[in-house]
Amino acid sequence: MSQGKLKVVAIAGGHAPRAQPAKLKTHEHARRAHYERLWLHNPEQFSPDNSFMETERLARTQHFLKPYLDAPEQRIVDLGCGWGTLALSIAKKGAYVDALDIANNAIRRLKPDLPDTMQLHCQALPHTTLEDRAYDVVICCDVIADLDRMDRRLLVAELQRLVKPGGIIVCSTPLDFRTEAALEAFEGLLATELSIEKRLLSHHGYFLRLQKLLQSPMHYTRASQDRNYFETHLATKGKLGAWWLRLQTRAPFVHLWRGIAKLSTPIYQRVRKSRTLGRLLEGTCRTFSPNTGISHAIVIATPKPLVENPPIA
Description:
There is one protein chain. The chain folds into two domains: 21-203 and 291-303, Vaccinia Virus protein VP39 (Rossmann fold, 3-Layer(aba) Sandwich), CATH 3.40.50.150; 205-288, no CATH class. It contains eleven helices and seven strands. The chain has helices at residues 24-41, 52-65, 85-91, 104-110, 149-162, 182-190, 205-225, 227-234, 239-248, 253-271, 275-288, and strands spanning 75-79, 96-101, 118-122, 135-141, 163-174, 194-202, 296-303. Strands 3-2-1-4-5-7-6 form a seven-stranded mixed β-sheet, with helices on both faces. Helix 7 (205-225) packs across helix 8 and helix 7 crosses helix 10 (253-271).
């Protein structure tokens, strides 16, 4: 395990290409191109209706936010708005919303349904050109996991810059439940600039393990057919993992996986959308693996004062 690394998992579409600090501008262009392609060729992958976990994440975020959205004419910003469901629902209730995403193709599909109280911005995080201290609520859902380590720190500073005094920040991320202290790493990162007030945790570790099991035949079948896919996953493996991947993508094993994939694929598609199974497994995971099955965290935070009050003598 890498020391000091925030262990969070990638969101839909996988990580954008990584870069060294000397190539930041090129890196930003590469990230933008990466997401433009994903939104152009398969925008449905970003729909929260694709899986129980995404639908549940959105519902829990909306419920968590509800007590903070009751003031008239609030200014809200949604950083990394993606499909736009959350930003649109808030704007249609009368708040003034700025919705930002890295991909023009994501922004373009939102324009036909745009209410008068909502504005769209195509910008790449962690920096924005939005006004300082301008927003009552700053929302950044499931974005931080897909940034480089340096950019994660910069994003937290950007959240602190955008929120008004007395305002709140809502930040969420998927967590790698297989990694020790993933939640502590995430909250430790936020604590560099913010004070955490509340948290809401999801325990989908068992549900994710079941999905991974059902995906295995599809994974090995694709790896045997798609060289780029094979090389990408091979690069993440240790010696034993690399040997296992090569073994499973060669005859006779790959022929077995292809046959099983025909049966497991429709089962997987049904399982990932099953609310009943998802909630049953989450309850079980919360009971038996309360600390090691955490898969997602939503945090409400406030900015720390720039200068701490000195102790009174």
